[in-house]
Amino acid sequence: MALFSFFVSLCLLLPSSLAIYQPASLTFSSTEGGLRLGGTGSGPTIVIDGQDWSGVTRAGNDLASDFGLVTGTKGKVVTAPIGLSNTPVIIAGTIGKSLLIDGLISSGKLDVSVIKGKWESFSSQLVSNPVEGVPSALVLAGSDKRGTIFALYDISEQIGVSPWYWWADVPPKKKTEIYAMNIKKTQGPPSVKYRGIFLNDEAPALSNWVNANYGKYDSRFYAKVFELLLRLRANYLWPAMWSAKFYVDDTKSGPLADEYGIVMGTSHTEPLARADKEKVKPWDWKSNQSGLKKYMQDGISRAKNWETLWTMGMRGDGDTSSPTLDASTLLSVIQYQQSILKSGLGVSDLSNVPQMWCVYKEVGGYYQKGMDIPKDITILWSDDNSGNVQRLPVPSEVSRPGNAGVYYHFDYVGDPRNYKWINTIQLSKTWQQMYLTHQKNATQIWIVNVGDLKPLEIPISHFLDMAYDISKFSTADSTDPWLKAWASREFGAEVADTTAEAMATYGKLIIRRKYELLNMSPFMLSTVNYDEAENVLSEWDALLKETQKVYDSLDSTTQIPFFEMVLHPIMAGGIVQRVYINAARNAAYAKQKRMSTNVLAADVKAAYAQDSVVQKRYHSLLNGKWNHMMDQIHFGYNNWQDPSSNTMPSVQTIGTTAPSTGIMGVSVQNSAASTPGDAAPALSAIDPYTPENRTIDIYARGSGTVDFTVTPNAAYIRVTPSSGTITYPSGTSDIRATISVDWSAVPSGSSKVDIAIKPSKGNAVTLSLPVNNLAVPSDFKGYVESNGAIAMEMRHFTSRTPGSNGANVDVIPNYGRTDSGLTLMPITAGTQTTSTGPKAQYAFYAFSSSSSAKVSVYVPPSFNVNPSSPLKYAISLDDGPITTVNPTPSSTLGSMPSGWSESVINGARIVTSTLGKVEPGKHVLNLWLLEPGTVVHRLVVDLGGVKSSYLGPPESSKVGY
Ligand SMILES: *[C@@H]1O[C@H](CO)[C@@H](O)[C@H](O)[C@H]1NC(C)=O
Ligand SMILES: *[C@@H]1O[C@H](CO)[C@@H](O)[C@H](O)[C@H]1NC(C)=O
Ligand SMILES: *[C@@H]1O[C@H](CO)[C@@H](O)[C@H](O)[C@H]1NC(C)=O
């Protein structure tokens, strides 16, 4: 859809622009045929016709001061081309609104044929002798008001002023020289026509902050939001609505939005530019039609002179369904609304009047019943509030003149639980859902619920950049390059890779479960199998360590935005994880009578206390600029709604009376037993391909000191450390010993080794370790079974085969809960079959045999966006029968597919199919993705050894890669 054309001759040779994905037209040193625009001691004169839109002049003034932020010398805006000798000149204007621009066009000096008449497009080029006495000027011509505004802000971003310079304190990049290159570039129209955000569920954080800084949601606050949106090349806003009435709270806000160039909308539950809080009572079409009609008419007369995208339809009071509405009544409401729009706006038809009807919650049920929605109204499909788009245009809907759009969520209040504290968005998932949305032609409106706005800077930027130019996001691996470009703009190229990697890792850690859901009972991570809980904690710790290093490398002004957007979520989020994971470990250790139960209890308390320290740190940045932005309660949820205060999970402590079986206790992975006392558990078997280390925990179960030795009865087994001392309360209370094997000395086949752990006082423990000396053939490439399980990450296929029509299965890096996703591309390839469609193959080597092997396929909680072409994959083992699966149960619009709640809580659906009999030897698992939008993000083959855990077994060993 996007018609971007770039006539860029030099840009490959020149340093890349600071602007994300915007072709460079500026450089910071003298360039052949270029024009110096500003630098230390001189700023440009920006000529903007006095007759042009005042919003263009306003943005011009922003650009003039942005030069000051970057070079120390501001530019200035003038309304006529006089007094321009000895100053760099930028001429900016809107075609048809600027005499200067129109004059350059008619004199043949400026060719705007590529952009003329298009939506929000602009050209940027040097023009010689544009006016008397000016040898050369940079000319920015907009096809319309926002086209010109975007051209001006494009220069701001390129010189080094981030759209987030105020909202996230990104420091302007200092420059001494700024030159325009002698190139012509054109941009636009954007891929999505109306692109914006919804400030919602704004209490407590945003509202408290607004009250402290502005007293209410007034036009000074909105001016900051409008400017941010325009700098992000967005154009559309749903204002805060729970504690605010946009047009009423400050009567300057409505006209100001129009002046800036922001298209105002209202949320799905607020028809015709009226606020929820203005609703007449009773809010009921049946009993108070005259009251409701007046409310709607008044909305039109109030906003009719300002650029508005009208919200059509209605719902019940307070974001709920209305008991007296049904499909036919709602249709008559919409017909009435269209009639008053015509009369109120004085137009005979509405084809040029943007209108939106949001198919949200129960409204979907009405549509499903066959509502014949007027074709000039944009159907705004919504996600499930958890980032999974429910429905997209089907073939019978794609030719509607009003087209379609999507209402998406980065923040939500409701089922299964609120998430409005900090950023919990996996960008690769946003990519997958919104790219699908674009390819299914829902391109009229993209609006995303951003809660308080502030902690969601990164997902907002990503979403709006996709909406502006989807062509930069046309491959499944487009997210990480975007993150790098984003990090480079905000913090500098030196830390772009590490920052991008940190945020990509954060996405995987957080898609597993949102913070508010971590305390669900039972706790999801296994404290027993695969060391899962500890491993997840280590992942968070490692991420924090790397991110802290990046932070430490930055100058102090750049540290501030880095803290706000990157370090804070990783640090604060990591604390919540630590609190819950260690609380679960504390309970498990208490059962084992480990004295370190008390250490974990103290750790939970310390981490919980650290939470408010980190909150204070955020709130005290820049003398309290963002005080209140972290006011959201985030501990202790027990239903969807916020609790009234944070509460720490309960932890146990244990006294020091040692069990009669002695002070020393021993536990091993994959068992909850504590021995002596419990029967000594067998260690899980080890073979050369076991992905996890085998370990033995030796720990104090009372006060005192015990020395111990660990002695295997085979020379090829080594345990490190082989002896030690455990002491409680002061000293080392727990020692983890790791088993290693000298495979060259192990007898072939299966054997058993005894490992004796002898304390200086108390009972000895002998553990039995099964050792399997196995080997795959030297030419084998693929995964290798260990202990009856093969866990595969999608990007490690052994081969893939394109479909006969060119479709393929492509990797989405950093997708899903552990590693990567696999999806069908391109989306336009349509439904595939197993005979001609693309497939991926995952070779594996089995040592066990199983008569009833199973494969678990991990998929995201996606919806069947086209109910008659549901998501679909097929799987087979070797040349065996092919099983075709629709992973998402069918559902009707307005209701959720079965298992929905569990799937969004877990960030995955796990669908298990039978593979049947598996003999030892080489095998190939074949996976076809048969419907665009289908993603798989993990495969686990169970030959009888898979233990219960949340994420599944650790990835199996691979050979031959
Ligand atoms: C309709 O709403 C108006 C405005 O709130 C109210 O004054 C009026 O009493 C309502 N009418 C009925 C019939 O309830
Ligand atoms: C989307 O729109 C394009 C351009 O109008 C059209 O060629 C294409 O067939 C549409 N795609 C779908 C899925 O309808
Ligand atoms: C296993 O232990 C070794 C040696 O301590 C360590 O380097 C490695 O990272 C461990 N591997 C896992 C999966 O924990």
From TrEMBL:
Keywords: Hydrolase, Signal. The keyword Transferase does not apply. GO terms for molecular function: hydrolase activity. Residues 782-955 form the Gylcosyl hydrolase 115 C-terminal domain. The keyword Methyltransferase does not apply. InterPro entries: GH115, GH115_C, GH115_sf, Hex-like_dom2. Residues 1-19 form the signal peptide. Pfam families: GH115_C, Glyco_hydro_115. This is Gylcosyl hydrolase 115 C-terminal domain-containing protein.
